[in-house]
TrEMBL record:
It comes from Spiribacter salilacus. GO terms for molecular function: coenzyme A diphosphatase activity; metal ion binding. Pfam families: NUDIX. PANTHER family: MITOCHONDRIAL COENZYME A DIPHOSPHATASE NUDT8 (PTHR12992:SF11), NUDIX HYDROLASE (PTHR12992). This is CoA pyrophosphatase. Residues 8-140 form the Nudix hydrolase domain. InterPro entries: CoAse (IPR045121), NUDIX_hydrolase-like_dom_sf (IPR015797), NUDIX_hydrolase_dom (IPR000086). Its cofactor is Mn(2+); Mg(2+). It comes from the Bacteria. Keywords: Hydrolase, Magnesium, Manganese, Membrane, Metal-binding, Transmembrane, Transmembrane helix. PROSITE patterns: NUDIX.
Length: 196
């Protein structure tokens, strides 16, 4: 019997939209510095798909309840974004849902030290994104980052925001020039400094 873990593990995150007077906003968290993986990083509520989860949506909602106290009754799931394969071996399914503004969010401090919101309008701006090189396994990976106030959003979270942005612009009927699509530029054509 083969008890080895699969090379790619399934995960799901909740891309939660909240309607506010100034426009829609996305819910993000800052992870605890005490966590063994991705400590201190900005991310969507979510995590590994567990055996008891019926599907990726169930995993995203369960994790959102565990991490930020979000009761699934306050979430109307609308769709999923294309899956994202991380460099650390996770295939992440972003589950998009509308969160009732009346929902009370409380961080589980063992995992999350802060819950904050970012305006969708900021996510849609092409100029908000910055490419950078990140050292990984002896090589430099070219990734997107989205600095927002005191937060530096990068990695899988920024990649999911890029996909979210593309879908939002496409659904709105806005035409995107190729340079506005945030397709990852060739590493040889980008003059940027390392993240370190």
């Amino acid at each position: 019997m083969n008890n080895s873990k699969p090379l790619v593990r399934q995960a799901a995150v909740l891309v939660g939209l909240v309607e506010r007077p100034g426009g829609d906003r996305l819910i993000l968290t800052r992870r605890s510095l005490a966590l063994p993986d991705h400590a201190g990083q900005i991310c969507f509520p979510g995590g590994v798909v567990e055996p008891q989860d019926r599907h990726h949506t169930a995993a995203a909602l369960r994790e959102a309840q565990e991490e930020v106290g979000l009761d699934s009754r306050f979430v109307q799931v609308t769709h999923q974004l294309p899956r994202y394969l991380t460099g650390t071996g996770f295939e992440v399914t972003p589950v998009v849902g509308r969160i009732d503004p009346a929902a009370l969010l409380l961080p589980c401090l063992a995992e999350v030290v802060e819950i904050f919101e970012i305006p969708v309008a900021a996510v849609l701006q092409r100029a908000a994104y910055r490419p950078f090189r990140y050292p990984y396994r002896g090589r430099k990976r070219l990734l997107w980052a989205l600095p927002y106030g005191p937060y530096y959003i990068w990695g899988a979270t920024a990649a999911i925001l890029v996909r979210f942005r593309w879908q939002m612009l496409r659904q709105s009927g806005r035409y995107m020039l190729p340079q506005d699509s945030l397709a990852m530029p060739s590493a040889s054509r980008v003059s940027i400094r390392d993240s370190s």
